[in-house]
Amino acid sequence: MDHIEFDREPLANLTTLVMAFGGWIDAGQAATGALRHLVRDLSATRLAWIDPEAFFVFTQERPEVRLRPDESRDIHWPRSEFFASPPGDGRDGLLLFCGGEPHQRWRTYTKAFLDVAESCGVTRIVSLGALLAGAPHTRPVRVTGRCTDPAWRSVLEAWGIYRRPSYEGPTGISTVVLDAAERRGMSHLGLMGQAPHYLQNAENPAAVHALLTYVARLLHLRPDMSQFDEAIQDFRTQCDRAVAKNRATREHVQQLEQQYDAEASDERPGLPDGKLDSEKLMQDLQDFLRGQRERGEEGTSGR
Q1: What are 61-116's pLDDT values in tens digits?
Q2: Nearest 5°: phi and psi at 267?
Q3: Which of 3, 32, 190, 193 lies at 20 to 30 Å from 162 by C-alpha?
């Protein structure tokens, strides 16, 4: 395949692809953070990578130099990597992809990308993303979903997160990939988290956790989430301190909280589909986020 380098022979039983692109739709590094967590948790091994030479402008995204213990140097180029996790524990085989959004030749890139997917037997794609939004860091991260598969749509509707596509305007590489995938007969589902727009450069563990929880529930995965409790608490504490330094920012966050709470009171989220054994996972998520919010409020009242 053009522009693709395989580390080994592709597996033909990786029916589900989970993908995350860095850049425009990776606010808080939520999508790529969730994907990297899946790769580690599943002990997925790299299967292939896309040669960046034809697709990246290296003055926009420069390669990095890193020192070895012997003081020699390695050059690390922008990565676009596929990882394989064979079927097991009652779940499908997974092809996982993480990479930056390419700068050019998107149609050529998309063809190379989907050629790898087809060679691995992919029939459906889960896309992870996150956008900057008017979302306060003091509240649970909202995630919405859209899809082309009727079965998946019924699940998203039961969870109360399905949204009809309504956006028109500039788009990212994931949309281009999914459009081409649909023409190849692959169904797809997109999960989109919301990260606070006033924290543009901050890695957001709460957003990573929210996306990871939904994709795990959808695909019958049980990743280790133990690291998130402390990370989310520390993140929110740091955000509280930063916001407290500026009156205008404090007032803006308070307005976002009021808007969030008003919208939440109008929502009627459904319970997950029991066929996916996900009701308990949803309750666990709600309990976790409720506990985080209550501890955050206690910390605020104590200041």
Answers
A1: 898 999 989 889 999 999 999 999 998 777 889 999 999 999 999 999 999 999 99
A2: -85, 150
A3: 32
Number of domains in the chain: 1
CA 101 to chain centre: 14
Q: How far apart are CA 113 and CA 116, in angstroms?
A: 5
For residue 249, give the amino acid letter.
T
Rounded to an integer, what distance in angstroms lies between the CA atom of residue 24 and that of residue 10?
30
By C-alpha distance, which of 88, 91, 97 is closest to 117?
97
**Using one digit for the tens of pLDDT, what is the confidence trace for 193-243?**
999 888 877 789 999 999 999 999 999 999 999 999 999 999 999 888 888
Cβ-contact 143, 191 below 8 angstroms? yes
Strand partners of residue 99: 21, 80
Return the bridge partners of 88, or none. 91
Contacts of 33 (CB under 8 A, 6+ apart): 203, 205, 207, 208
Where in the sequence is the domain holding 136, given as residue range(s)? 4-301
Question: What CATH number has the domain bearing residue 135?
Answer: 3.40.50.10900
Q: Phi and psi for 3 in degrees, rounded to 5?
A: 70, 5
Q: What is the DSSP string of the chain?
A: -TTEEESSPPPS---EEEEEEESTTBGGGHHHHHHHHHHHHTT-EEEEEE-GGGT--TTTS--EEEE-TTS-EEEEPPPEEEEEE--BTTB--EEEEEEEPPSS-HHHHHHHHHHHHHHTT--EEEEEEEEEES--TTSPPPEEEEES-HHHHHHHHHHT-B------S---HHHHHHHHHHHTT-EEEEEEEEEETT-TTS--HHHHHHHHHHHHHHTT-----TTHHHHHHHHHHHHHHHHHT-HHHHHHHHHHHHHHHHHHHH--PPPPPGGGT-HHHHHHHHHHHHHHHHHHHHHHHT-
Quick count: other Cβ atoms within 10 Å of Cβ 174? 24
